[in-house]
Design a protein that fits this description.
Length: about 190
Amino acid sequence: MAWYVIDGMDGCGKNTVADALADELAKKGRVTFVQTHPSDRIAGKMSRRLLVKDGKSYQAFATLFFIIDVLGSLVRMRFWKGYDDIIFVRYIMAAAYLPDRLVERGYNLIARVLPMPEHLILVDTPPEKAMCRIIERGHELEMFETVEKLVRIRNRMLGQSHKGWTIIDNSNSRESIRHQLEDYLG
């Protein structure tokens, strides 16, 4: 089984890229399971609810529930039989949402403690474009969903991307994403 992680800031198009990757893998005859975080399990729902609040304590609890949600997926992954590939949408780059002084240490700690997938894909797009996508969804904005915060988070993620990440540019068309994934998959 191959394990892929699709990560990136809010509004960058992680789910779009995950769906495109699943389609590309299906063309190769592979059966793929996509797990998005936060998920629809209890911890994921709690994390999402807290993300629309404002304040450090809400951020801390949203992070805690996100971690519990991801750990739940890691445990469940052993039981997902019949799949050739697993795609996690959001995983280790969640460290970029920590305060500046903790991003590097958080990323490195997660990479040492949790299993790391063989395929790391970072979806990148300009923060202004990501913010437009977020607004188009029509959902209540989360605590990190302002252009200024997206700029900081994007920079933090790009700062960690030298650690084995393939960057997919999602500022153009879906066709462009497909070509980038075809090149990545070989």
